[in-house]
Amino acid sequence: MGFVSTILGFCGFGVGISTGLTVGYYLFIYFQPTDVKDPVIRPLIQHDSKSLQGLLPEIPSWVKNPDYDRIDWLNKFLEIMWPYLDKAICKTAKNIATPIISEQIPKYKIDSVEFESLTLGSLPPTFQGMKVYITDEKELIMEPSLKWAGNPNVKIAAKAFGLKATVQVVDLQVFAQPRITLKPLVPSFPCFAKIFVSLMEKPHIDFGLKLAGADLMSIPGLYRFVQELIKDQVANMYLWPKTLEVEILDPTKALKKPVGILHVKVIRAQKLKKKDLLGASDPYVKLKLTETKAPSKKTMVKHKNLNPEWNEEFSMVVKDPETQALELLVYDWEQVGKHEKMGMNVVPLKELPHDEPKTMMLDLLKNMDPNDSQNDKMRGQIEVELTYKPFKEENMPKDVENSDEVQKAPEGTPPGGGVLVVTVHEAQDLEGKHHTNPYVRILFRGEDKKTKQIKKNRDPRWEEEFTFVLDEPPVKDKMHLEVLSTSSRIGLLHPKETLGYVDINLADVVSNRRINEKFHLIDSKNGRLQIELQWQTS
Amino acid sequence: MGLISGMVMGMVFGIALMAGWKYMMGHRSRKRVAKAVDIKLLSSLSKEDMKKICGENCPEWISFPVFEQVKWLNKQLSKLWPFVADAAEAVIKESVEPLLEEYRPPGITSLKFSKLSLGTVAPKIEGIRVQSLKEGQITMDIDLRWGGDPSIILAVEAALVASIPIQLKDLKVFTVVRAIFQLSDEIPCISAVVVALLAEPKPRIDYTLKAVGGSLTALPGVSDMIDDTVNTIVTDMLQWPHRIVVPIGGIPVDTSDLELKPVGKLAITITRANDLKNMELIGKSDPYVVLHIRPLFKVKTKVVENNLNPVWNQTFELIAEDKETQSVIFEVFDQDIGQDKRLGIAKLPLSELVAETSKEIELRLLPSLDMLKIKDKKDRGTLTIQVLYHEFNKEEQMAALEEEKRILEERKKLKEAGVIGSTMDALDGAASLVGSGVGMVGAGIGAGAGLVGSGLGAGVGIVGSGFGAVGSGLSKAGKFMGRTITGQSSASRKSGSATPVNTQENGGAKPL
């Protein structure tokens, strides 16, 4: 008897609990309002010490840490813009989602899926500080501390088999600390080629998920589980060192890397016009590629010759064969005074065949203006042989992502040895006693190389590269770099002056393959010199 | 028995479960909302809030200036600057050189940049302030300071004179740039940007002009023309309430609301002046008054000879574009042989006026509007005026706009006929250049490039105006014997030179 009673008791409990749950659901949850209200925000002044206590953990990083900068102006900007942004984003999201939904639902025998409400709420994301890092590399690093505790209301209603189910996401909160890196920096707008985004810590995500009005996330344990799941998913994708990469510019184009070499052979000129009063002209040819900063190349001067033969060869680095052009200028050399232009012509590189020599006979013109009547006059002709050799694809650096890393040494490097590449970037706070026209002199194994001189500048930028081919790794060697200044006036009063020097131990370079550092100059007050050293082996 | 007690227990349990769930829901929801409120509160803190939170332990590194500091942006900018400079140089060269060619006046065979370098010093953003002054608009003020070392050399080749490279260097730009973002419901949520320089504090643009390997005397009047051009560009095109409107995002929007439009008409009667300063050795001053809102539209009274308490009783109508920020400038001059001397200046902000009510105002005359420069505190007399401000309705506004266009058009014709001097040439030329400069701002260089654009505009000014003015400028050539001339287009630097006024009837070599 007791046994039956117990069975009945269990059955009763089963029936009772389902009725109870249903009654409870209708009693407590079903009639709950599902719309999201705007929270009441009291100004901080009105808070008492107790509610302030609750505020303390959320104090922004810029208050706590001096290395964070306040960006309340951006918060304000976002706050004003938020209602518009909200509408725009929701509209776009709806427009994107509707066709996808209508395509997908027939498969699952669902009648309709639609947004009952879609809004991001009235609270905008806020930035609780911004931190930037300065490195010696060509990159910008920013770390905003982003907190979005919003009150969005996304309610999706699905209808199937005459039943209606709603899923509602409310009170989404995302706290994250992304690191945004812009690199490499390039000299064309917007001045960086790629954006890398990566999360420094696992983000904090919290939200309410209401299924038919009941918030699943408030079931004890479930929320924690779901949150961990999402965190791990996000972390898998974007937690540092994993990064999201967005390409803005094609870095090869933006960096203007060399794509080929132009060989120019200046053969001869004929029927040049006489320019000097006494005797014939003294012609020479100046060659220049447009859009480069490289110095122009010159042939020898052929004295007193109106039909000179040079037969000299030059090679020039081409960066963009589509827009660059070769300028040929014939000048009359003078012992004293300005060299007079005898004529010129321009050959656009896109007219040249690849890898084949092309001999051209060019008329010399006064200028490149086709309407100028002065061009009708005969000024003679010049004969040149041009060969444009584009680099083969396999020679090109394929993946630009590794452009920062050490490249392979070029062919012809002795085995066991390699190439030491020294890049002199810039210097800061140089100070000369009498003049500051700095240039850098590199002394290494008896070799002596110099950069350009930059006049009257205490923070010069050279960006010059030098290479040394070595038979063995320079483990025991040192490199001596000194910054020198010479007077811009011809005067013996204050001749050459040393602005500071630095000795770099190359063992570090060999073991690290590449170092890029600002070295403090010895014998200088505050001077610093940024040097990049690479050890490339085959 | 067991069944019923089971059912009751089950029901109680079920309802309790649901009640518990509901409680949890409410609890979590309250927690989330509380957090959201906290974060919202902390997103923009004021000094009082800070005190409230931290009490005595407020960190020392925190301050609350009107313009919020942006150290991080400056750090990034200085790092990025070499690249920005390179990119901007290329863009400027590409976009401005054809324009130079277009505005090349006859007599000059070639006009090119032989050097264009923006220097190594990055502009500094002293602070940023964001306000919402009007529904649907964000007003962002950027305090920009650039004491740069750019070197811009413009190679001018004239047919008669040998090639004269003109160098612009040591450019200093201190100004507050106001950018107004017009918001819209479509991504990217900004339909147009309005850019202007704030009038208060007054923009300061200093630069040094130098003729490389020669002297600027070869082109008489050039530096004056450049200064004039820069000054006019700044005060009459860039300085608030004048503005440049850049539509953004490819959405066709009606930006006419953002453009500057006449909003009202000012009827000013210059009644009399009292106790004017005597500037003449023999007899008394011969005073007349020049008044303007925009320097482009100046009007002047008749001259009352030999009188320190003149009565004019002349009425003028001036158009106002922005009642909040504009003001009427009254300048009293003494007519003299040679240069007219200024007896005093006074300013009447339009914001003090009430629409449709006539008011008599007595203004104290000052030696200069720049309070820092006033040395003598001597009384310079007073000026009595009668003002009536009339606010335009829609039709009147359109009519005024048409009228303004007509006047400018007329002046252009006069200029073509050679009646008015050539400074307007320069103005037109420079105007379009500034436009291109601003286009670059849109492209994201920031105001620096825009200012460079205007700097270049000044360069064109040289050419547009300099040569036309050779004749009239010869008399002034003596002034420019030095090789280096420092131009400054800030406050009223014109005080010493010729009267910068001409009425329409006697149009001469100077702009109105």
From TrEMBL, chain A:
Topology in the lipid bilayer: Single-pass membrane protein
One GO-annotated biological process of the protein: lipid transport
Composition bias, Basic and acidic residues: 396-408
UniProt keyword Transcription regulation present: no
InterPro entries in the record: C2_dom, C2_domain_sf, SMP_LBD, Synaptotagmin_plant, Synaptotagmin_SMP
Region (Disordered), start-end ranges: 396-418
All residue ranges annotated as the C2 domain in the record: 240-362, 402-519
Domain SMP-LTD: 67-249
Main localization, broad class: membrane
Residues passing through the membrane, by range: 7-31
PROSITE patterns: C2 (PS50004), SMP (PS51847)
Compartment annotation: Membrane
A single MF term (Gene Ontology): lipid binding
Keywords of this entry: Calcium, Lipid transport, Lipid-binding, Membrane, Metal-binding, Repeat, Transmembrane, Transmembrane helix, Transport
GO-annotated cellular components: endoplasmic reticulum; membrane
PANTHER family: CALCIUM-DEPENDENT LIPID-BINDING (CALB DOMAIN) FAMILY PROTEIN-RELATED, EXTENDED SYNAPTOTAGMIN-RELATED
Protein family membership: Belongs to the synaptotagmin family.
Protein name: Synaptotagmin
Organism of origin: Erythranthe guttata
TrEMBL record, chain B:
Domain annotation SMP-LTD: ranges: 66-249
Listed transmembrane segments: 6-25
Any one Gene Ontology BP term: lipid transport
Domain C2: 247-365
GO molecular function: lipid binding; metal ion binding
Assigned keywords, A-Z: Calcium, Coiled coil, Lipid transport, Lipid-binding, Membrane, Metal-binding, Repeat, Transmembrane, Transmembrane helix, Transport
Family: Belongs to the synaptotagmin family.
Designated name of the protein: C2 domain-containing protein
Organism: Erythranthe guttata (Yellow monkey flower)
